[in-house]
Task: structure prediction
Amino acid sequence: MALTVPLAVLALVALVAPGLGAAPGCDYPAHRWCSSRDTAVACQVESRCPLLPRPAAAPVELSLYYESLCPACREFLVLKLFPTWLLLPEEMLNITLVPYGNAQERNVSGKLDFQCQHGPEECLGNMMEACLMHEAQNFSTYFAVIFCLESGSSVTKNLEACLQIYAPEVDIGRISACVQGDTGVALMHHNAQLTEALDPPHQYVPWITINGKHTDELQAQAEASLLGLVCHLYQGEKPEVCGGSKAPKIPPGCRR
Result:
């Protein structure tokens, strides 16, 4: 009569068979080698533990280099970036906002001065949003306020109203002090450095990098279907919303 051996026993035999044992120095008994990923790593038997949970996938990293008054920037942020962020789980997409764009930084009598493509009001809007990010710190908080500013009638005149709706806990006085003081200048200088360090150099805004890279293809895909692009690139388990997405292209960016 044939001998029937339980599968669990066969698996254990395979683990402890000559030449297939755990790594030297593994202090765990064989029946615990697959009890957790840390244990499997310590005993160098990950490949023989198929039921271990997969490590969490890294989020897709998206950086948006933009100007507060650029029409194409506002449209991308309001109609593509913000809705995509709302639809996806937090762990799928990590966003960095850099308000500066095609601005120019000058040293005037020892003080930094900024000139912006759409005039002084845009410089004010850029600095307001940079100071908002600095003061609020929490991305979910300041992104909602920036969405409110960029989707409204005036980026520079609606801060108080947007804070009341989306972030009443943020002190508008601290943001104003930042804008009017040295902190705001330092934040804009930092954004200038980030923008100038882009490789390849930016040629227009919005300028989008995905996982630290910018190509014409990635830019076009992000503008055509940001949700679809993020869903495609994310390596972890994907939500139902990733079943497919198509969207019209946004207007050409603000070139230098």
